[in-house]
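step 4 of 6: structure.
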Amino acid sequence: MREALEGSQAIARAVALCEPDVVAAYPITPQTHIVENLSKLVADGDLHTEFVSVESEFSAASVVLGAAASGARAYTASSSQGVLLMAEVLFNIAGLRIPLVMTVANRAVSAPLNIWNDHSDSMAVRDSGWIQLHCENNQEAVDTTVQAFKISQDTDLPVMVCMDGFVLTHTMEVIDLPTLAQVRKWLPPFNFKRALDPSDPKSLGALVGPEFFPEVRHSHHAAVQNALPVIEKVDASWGKAFKRNCGGLLTVEGPQEARIGFLAMGSTVGTLRSGLAHRTEGPDARLIKLRAFRPFPEAALRQAVAGLDHLIVIDRAISPGLGGVLGCEVRAALYGQPGAPRIHNHAIGLGGRDIPETIVADLLSAIEDPDAPAFSVFDADLSMLPPEDR
Amino acid sequence: MSLYETDRKDERLAELREKFGRHPVDPPDRFHQGGSQRDRQPRFCGLESGHRACQGCGEALAARLVMECAGPDVMVANATGCLEVFTTPWPQTAWQVPWIHSLFENSAAVASGMEAAMKAKGRNTKILAFGGDGGTYDIGFQALSGMLERYHNILYVCYDNEAYMNTGIQRSSSTPHAASTTTSPAGPERMGKRHLKKDLLSIIAAHHIPYSASASVAFPADLQRKVRYAMGIEGPTFLVVHSPCPLGWKHDSHLTIEVARRAADCGLFPIVEMERGALSNVMPIRKVRPVRDYLELQGRFGHLMDPDDPRAVEELTHLQALADYNISHFNLRGEGEDPADTAGIAHVARDRSAGER
């Protein structure tokens, strides 16, 4: 059914359709509306779940860990500082290979304190061993949320659904919500084989020494990589059932003969698409929307950039002293590939700075500069800084 | 040939009996035949032998006693610490119940999630959360407070050995005043820990949970009664078990029980019960001993034993005053020595006003 819903509200409704046994969350803007809406659904009797209002993000992650380990479908949501406070538990959840789902309403990380959107939070925990999927709009976020439960169950891995804070979470959009019956039919019941059970006692979380630790890490790495076909398969199955897709691992738009490409994740993709469509002049451009950031779809990416001379990688997070996080990963994936495009890496819209459609033309003209640095904070006004910082 | 596969009349066994005075017990049969009265007593063994705790470990003993009466229909969330490390070195485990270790500071929160899962599935398996004093008094304190406030049906057991023993005997907020640890060492400028032991039980009781209590490995009957009582309560309950650590407290490993007993007998570790925030029971001290009797067994208080050092005398007096305060505050003084030695069995209902009289 099509309804006008705020992003957070839509996510809450999507989560409710998956009928989680346990939901735990701590209020942190911009994720707060999601859990407020879930609490309301519980209070109104529309959702039967154990809603645990914890005293910190750290406990939110710990509660869903304990719940999923005990065989319950579990969900939490967080953002920014909350994700960083959870960091220790996030690594633990993934290391224990516990399937659960978390929404990250992407937001900058303090200091300076800034509540607005960029990808600093989820990038800070990219090495935690979670699956990370990015959503372009709220419909995708809704669909990806339901898909995430299936992916986590199929892989025994936790899944992070990343959606841009405010830009998506606080925006009204017409959403086509599946019905409960449809979701029940599509999403199999939660069945965690290693779940704790007094009738078959198991110990989870043993101390592992150097004699087995590298094997554990290899196995985890392989498990996350093996999620690549699962993500594609689940999206295909979704497409069959609901007649729309979220773009598998990544999608490529625009003319095949284009020599210039843009690559981005999240809502920025929509801005770029619109910017490309609305300009009156300029070269053809290909638009690559990366949905799966972990596992990183190297092979699909190499295919997607084939034939490009220039690839503009838009970053929403930086690693100070190195450059854009996504840019570095794309560079690494394309390194040594014959005919790989020249990569122009720019961070744009950090801390929620508006990204106008005109950015497309600016980015395209920046390609012409042969002396351009490998990375820039593209929209930074350096005249606002003291000379030594420029 | 395994020892347990031999005939009981085997020469080797006779030799061992000769040597150790007590014949080795065959584990599979020990519930039903042979052995001492205690060996024959059927009981649930949630924490098996064969783990890697140090000789004389108070925590291992306490955990076994807790598991014996908590029974098989439980699931345990264990904080990082000695108990976790010595029971589950991969690929072994000493636990006969579902058990999970996540992190140092979140056992109460993980247990909260497990309990929520049980509720959601309509099961009444009791959830236990275990932590040491570091994971309870210090780093896990917030998660514990949240768990109590949210009224989860969980028994939290803190095995209190009064320092970070697993990491190398660093002071915690549970370390007693004047105890020497690796981060509160005694020296010309310091007489061990400068601060007091945190009164955790009062803070726990201030959450107005149904039941919170202290216990000691020296009084197993009392400890197990408290576990059984807590297991019967639908709601959050808390137990702090005084568990000597021969390594960290620097006493001989055969003295664990004696040290724990003297801690209670001198009043430094009061054994009390609180219900809904008010003192409900205390274990009376039949014969009050001076704190010196307790301290002198342990190397961590060795620097207090020099009668010529005025600082040592002052700290000893200070510790005695703290013990005296406990005795008067909780009204711990018993009715004198009891020939039947009922310590740990008899309980006297006391309320706080009686203590203040």
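step 5 of 6: annotate
 - The CA atoms of residues 118 and 316 of chain A lie 5 Å apart.
 - The mean pLDDT of chain A is 96.
step 6 of 6: archive
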